[in-house]
Specification:
15% strand; 7-stranded parallel sheet; TIM Barrel; 2 domains; 4-stranded antiparallel sheet
């Protein structure tokens, strides 16, 4: 068999063409702090994990925030407190290794939203035309599968409105919630077209919208169907009309929403959090003819000194999920900094071993 390019490999997996595949595609998301550890432990200086481990997807985005000036409010040896481009205030570890502490939100009322809304207009200023376009051409020449990345929906709107207030608004003020969803989605779509006109050619769209936690959804399937389902339908229609596959990053236990995702036209669900009950084998059995799955490999096992549990995890899940195509390797969220370079090298070796088709 002729060696496939990363783009060809990803497309064959998406099209469920096992007959065209040499192995499953490989992609992952190590934390910045994890990469720093790996450099200390042997990752060659100047080489990214993407290049060293042969990740096959590259992603490019526009700034779809209100573009408020980023402001450092205070900092010390461990933390940095900043006002973000969304207008909120966050406290981060200096290595940005964990989820930030949210100190303040820019939208306390609907009137606050109306003031911010006028800033959400498409503009070529939202794209880094020099660095991003140069990087795009480099990744395209390497044969990678190129994606347009954007946060959308409920998860995106949490940048504006405090979570408990937003959840109350889902019930008490649905028209405001839908206005925020649609305003953001229109900007995401318009910026994709601006990037395409400026020279980017995208194979897919990678959308980010966390909708669940360990035990279930943030809100009922009915509220999803009434408020966010039509937005996702339009996003999928838009991207597909431009020849793009649609991936959705959606953390937590979101099993109850998968039928909606399929109806909308989402082709790939990622990351399949094990600790939230998202079982790759169960999902492949139930929906494997209708979706491609990406992820589902428990990162907690990657950090163990005993190599047997992670090998059993990869062997069991990958061997099953790769059948008929429709599976892309990824961790079940992102790779934390308790995973050593040597342990992770073994993970990728095992993925190659058990992910081959012939």
């Amino acid at each position: 068999m002729i060696d496939l390019t990363p783009r060809e490999r990803v497309i064959a997996a998406l099209e469920h063409r096992e007959d065209r595949l040499d192995r499953i595609p490989i992609q992952d998301s190590p934390w910045g702090a994890t990469v720093s550890r790996w450099i200390r432990e042997g990752l060659p200086d100047g080489m990214s994990p993407e290049d060293y481990f042969g990740y096959e997807i590259a992603q490019f985005s526009a700034d779809t925030s209100p573009m408020f000036p980023v402001e450092v409010i205070r900092e010390d040896a461990e933390y940095i407190v900043e006002r973000t481009s969304f207008g909120g205030i966050r406290r981060n570890h200096r290595d940005y290794s964990t989820t930030p502490e949210i100190i303040d939100w820019p939208c306390k009322t609907r009137e606050d939203w109306e003031k911010i809304k006028v800033r959400l207009q498409p503009s070529e200023r939202r794209v880094d035309w020099v660095s991003a376009l140069n990087a795009y051409h480099r990744e395209r020449s390497r044969g990678r599968f190129i994606m347009y990345g954007a946060a959308v929906g409920y998860d995106k709107i949490q940048n504006y409105v405090k979570s408990d207030q937003l959840l109350k608004a889902v019930i008490r003020d649905p028209e405001w919630v839908k206005d925020m969803y649609w305003t953001d989605a229109r900007l995401v779509m318009e910026m994709c077209d601006i990037m395409i006109r400026g020279g980017f050619k995208f194979d897919g769209a990678f959308l980010y919208c966390d909708l669940g936690y360990r035990k279930g959804l943030f809100f009922s399937p009915r509220h999803y169907e009434e408020q966010l389902h039509p937005v996702f339908k339009e996003l999928c229609r838009f991207f597909k009309s431009r020849g793009m596959y649609v991936f959705l990053h959606c953390c937590g236990n979101v099993k109850d929403l998968i039928p909606y995702f399929i109806e909308e036209g989402i082709e790939v669900l990622q990351p399949l959090e094990v600790k939230a009950g998202m079982d790759l084998i169960e999902l492949k059995e139930k929906y494997g003819d209708e979706m491609t799955f990406m992820g589902g490999i428990d990162t907690r096992l990657m950090a163990l000194n005993d190599p047997k549990p992670i090998e059993e995890e990869i062997k069991k899940k990958v061997v099953f999920a790769k059948q008929g195509g429709g599976y892309i390797y990824h961790s079940d969220h992102s790779v934390p900094n308790n995973v050593s370079f040597q342990n992770y090298k073994r993970v990728i070796e095992l993925v190659h071993k058990y992910g081959r088709y012939r």
